[in-house]
What does this fold into?
Amino acid sequence: MVFILFSVLILRLGFVQIVYGDDYRREIERTEDITVNNPVPRGKMLDRTGKVIVDNIPQNAITFTNRGAKQADMIEVAKKLAVLIEKDTSKVQERDKKDYWILENAERADAKVSDEEIKKLKETLEGKELDKKIYQLKLDRITEEELNELTAFDLEVLAIYRDFSSGYALTPQMVKNKGVTDEEFAVVSENLQLLPGVDTTTDWERYYAFGDTLKSVLGSVSDDGLPAEQLDYYLARDYSRNDRVGKSQIELQYEDVLHGQKAKVKNVTDKAGNVLETIPISEGKRGKDLVLSIDMDLQTAVDKIVEEELLAAKKKAGTTLLDRSYVVLMDPRTGEILSMSGKRIVKKENGERVVMDDALGNIQTTYNVGSTVKGATIMTGFNTGAIKPGTMFYDTPVRIKGTPPKKSWKAGLGTMSDITALKFSSNVYMFQTAINIGGGTYIPDHSLRLDPKGFSTIRDSFAQYGLGVKTGIDLPNEQSGFKGNGTKPGFMLDLVIGQYDTYSNMQLAQYVSTIANGGNRMEPHIVKEIREPLMDGEIGPIIEEIEPKVLNRVEGKEEWLNRVKEGFKKVTLEPGGTAYSSFGAKGKDYKPAGKTGTAEAFYDGPERSKYGKEPPEVINLSYVGYAPYDNPEVAIAVLVPWAYQGSHSHYANRNIAERVLDTYFELKKQRQSGTANTDNSTQDQNETDGEKTDQE
It folds into this structure.
């Protein structure tokens, strides 16, 4: 029997060796190719003149690459590394602590679940489900006292181990890339042979050359890899978990352009997971550069003006609720945003008030804007046949039965045409236009009936100019505004003077640009060009130039739009115009045209909860304009929400508009003469006391 058994064994071994020997040999020698992507620095951002706005600065970094290390091995390496570096532990969660406590106290953890409990669990569970349930019981039974046994050193080890185990095998994980001192970098480098998987390298960090200027618009980049809420999205696009991506605004909107082309490396491993060879596949390439339409010299000056005028207005009586102001400068011919400024006064926890950047408020907040929309009202009247060029109305209060009189800001304006109604900002002219649009007949002290379809007629017409709709700017989270849902006749009258629906300052900029350029609603954009990345100090060739985009052409005859432009010209350059004292009276040589706005509104800001059910009444100030009036090259929109209350007043909207336009043309003149100086924002700031701005 022994002979027979050995004979069978020999035959079997011979059969395996002869028939399957080559197959098994190949299996033993089999290798696996694993491709790893290594991140590269993001693209830069530059302004329209070539100044670097956002750059990358190198910084020391410590990484870990898991090349098949076991859990116990990684913990040992983490303990050695924790002795050499300081590690932030603020992101260690309670669950992390419990997991680590179990690893370090295996016997005590096992004792938390009795044999009898395990036996009972086996009656209903098995395999991974059983192990999962037992582990959860251990976690649940760890006490606060036991967790407090973890020392500060233990927490550092845990924080490091957490980074070690957070990514894919053979992919470098960032352990520390902020605040790595030269001493830490040196001592870790000297002890790499004792720290398998650990490496010292150079990482990058975003650098903002102009500090906080426009930073809210530029956006931010994630610090700790992919955002959890977008993890699947980025993983499906070949990102690694520890890749940093744009989190907001331009960084987010242009992530595909800025993130660059990763370096690819192929790791050849044997069956046991040991790396046999590392083969470079492709070199990485820094992200493409963005050239913005913003002029940073102009932006810096405008920021200064907005902040100064906001603080100056805040010193006036009745400005308790005033806390913000916004400005947009746009090229009406192309839609390029030349400057986008916003400032907000914020109270800190210690009671100190500071002025913060709020440029995004130009697209993310909306308000009643007042008479600045009257140009769109006149064009709506022309297009619907409610009025004709030269139609006259006598400006006298509109008295509707059961409601307070609705009137213009000043009594005795007299007989108004479409042009003079813009010059003097006649509310009554706009009311009569709205009544005709709604098919109503006005009889003083009687009820007024208007067709509710008039609301959609007016809103559809306003939308052609960008009012009440998204402008299409290349930034996320743009707001379109609030549309009043009431259909009372009085609301339609409020709508045509800008006191019913709400609009953003960017919408005002698009609206006035549409008038300035002769009727084309241009899509605003803040990125001008995409360029290839080159060496420092050089700008690469253009990959893509953002072409001007006409979203729509407004309805109406050119001669009608010219009448609106004539009215805007009279507002600023003819005595009696509501902005004459800020422009025409001072002899501005850049020939501005524009429209002021003063809206009666209700406060809905950060202090709203203090005022009970009824919000306080406030006045919003605005201004839209362009220059020169005969060949517009720049359009401006200014918005000062909750400017003042009651009978108090100030002219922050006009002061800002005047100083900003002065600065724009002064900077242009200096550049043409080769003597550009960015500190030119201190124009004449004397408060004007001539024509009173319209008080709709």
